[in-house]
Amino acid sequence: MKLSTKRVTIVDVASKSGVSKSTVSRVLRGDGDVSEDVRLKVTRAAKRMNYQPSVFARSLRSQRSQAIGLIIPDIANPFFPEVVRSIQNTADARGYTVLLANSDWHVERERKYLDFARRYHLDGIIINPVSISPAELKKSGCPVVVIGSRAAYGVFDTVASDTLGSITCAVDHLVARGHVDLALIAGPIGNPGATVRARAFRESIAAHGLAVDEARILWFDFTRVGGQAASRALAAAAPRPTAVVCGNDLIAIGLMAGLRDAGVDVPGDLSVIGIDDIDAAAMTFPPLTSVSKDKTLLGARAATLLIDRIEGKLPDAPARERLDTTLIERSSVAPPRANERRVIARP
């Protein structure tokens, strides 16, 4: 027997119960200006037909959907699932549904998902933006929380781990272990997050009285493949830096794999430090030293900020939250060998 996939509508319920569409609508809304006999006929018909009201249709009338959009750049990056789960758990507890979208680092996808949020009256949006402009984001017409610290998005509520502090922490740790010739794999060139990492690296290097060598700032994707590509550049460098800060742990994991294939020992020949402290960081060879971000807290605070904004519980001024990071020491960092302790002073 073929199962029907036709959605039961309010018109079907009206026909079955022998009343008008507007009467059915009043009954289902709980209006009191209908007789008890009509109310029973409509509710019984709706139950027998398994009628489910359209959430989207209701949102068009009420301008509320009890749904929020979450737009992230890369669901394959292990950093994000923890954040997503925490956002969903927090939203569920507040009575909101989360619709997840993966932009895959493409601004056109960001635009498409923002257009969806606008057309279907989502109550708010949480976004880790790639390239979407603040002006376009504002056109969504609903409250927005931005994950990440970006000056350009200052008109929105933001919650971010301290990326600047993460880079500073990594550089400080490497310098304390005796390294003075450091490199950074920042991320893809032109990416706002990579630009922030590069700026923090320059400032941290200069703060230690060391020369800033732009050739030591490398631009590769925030992926294992990006890290493997960077390994070829670092393995061939002459002289090679003694330590490298990676823009995230995926870069670091790919880098270490590529260096191992090239015969470069970590940490004997090159110390490596990552950022994020994803679960895999503890299972690499050697285990990866990383600057940990509290991903669960990040998601919870982003969802709480957004829902509080939706429900009018925040003052007009944009909220700014920056979460602390913590260095997790493992085995991928060691002091440089004695013959590699070069002195690189700032001119």
The fourth-level CATH homologous superfamily of the largest domain is Response regulator
Question: Mind telling me the C-alpha Rg?
Answer: 27 Å
CATH architecture label of the largest domain = 3-Layer(aba) Sandwich
How many strand units?
12
Beta-strand level of the residues, as a percent range? 15-25%
Residue share in helix:
40-55%
Distance between the termini: 83 Å
Q: Could you please say which CATH topology of the largest domain applies here?
A: Rossmann fold
Order of helices and strands: HHHHEHEHEHEEHEHEHEHEEHEE
What is the overall pLDDT average?
90
Q: How many helices in DSSP terms? A: 12
Question: Regions with pLDDT < 50 over 5+ consecutive residues?
Answer: none
The helix-and-strand class reads alpha/beta
Strand arrangement in the largest pleated sheet: 2-1-3-4-5-11
Q: Largest beta sheet, briefly?
A: 6 strands, parallel
Q: CATH top level of the largest domain?
A: Alpha Beta
What's the overall geometry? elongated
Quickly count the domains: 3
Q: Notable features of this structure?
A:
3 domains, Rossmann fold, 347 residues
Overview of the structural elements:
The protein is an alpha/beta fold. The protein folds into 3 domains: 10-53, 434 Repressor (Amino-terminal Domain), CATH 1.10.260.40; 65-162 and 295-325, 3-Layer(aba) Sandwich (Rossmann fold); 164-293 and 328-340, Response regulator (Rossmann fold, 3-Layer(aba) Sandwich), CATH 3.40.50. 41% of the residues lie in helices and 16% in strands. The chain has 12 helices and 12 strands. It has helices at 10-17, 21-29, 36-48, 55-62, 79-93, 107-119, 134-138, 163-176, 192-207, 224-236, 249-261, 295-310; strands at residues 67-72, 97-102, 124-127, 144-147, 157-161, 182-185, 217-218, 243-246, 271-276, 289-293, 320-323, 325-328. It has a 6-stranded parallel β-sheet with strand order 2-1-3-4-5-11, with helices on both faces.
